[in-house]
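Many introductory courses stop at the sequence. We go one step further.
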Amino acid sequence: MKLESTLPTRANFLYSAPVLDVVLLLLIFFLLGSNFILKSGISVEVPFSNSSLPSIDRSHIITLAPGENLRIYLNEDRVTLDELGERLENNASTDKVHQVIIRADQSAAFGSVIEISNLVLRHGYDLVYATSSEEEN
């Protein structure tokens, strides 16, 4: 006795649904994955360092851009030194982020870096300096 199925074969739909799911998941992964990269839009050459710290999940980024005049960026907004102090003071009590990363260009004046570091520490933030590893140079 030979057993035969009376159900219609739907192989096209059965095999295309998982492929479509994988394609959509990859599309979502690549579209949203770039939003979670922690980078500032300002290009700087950070100094080299052999030491490294674990990455910080959430932090503010202060960028000191190269040039004759000191250009300071808090996250992606250009600010003056006075505005930076005001924003740090306003955010210190209500902000859930308590870390600041300073990305200073190699050619930035050392005095400016220390002045901004003191300002950040005075408002109670943890401070980290961004450096490059040997492989990036």
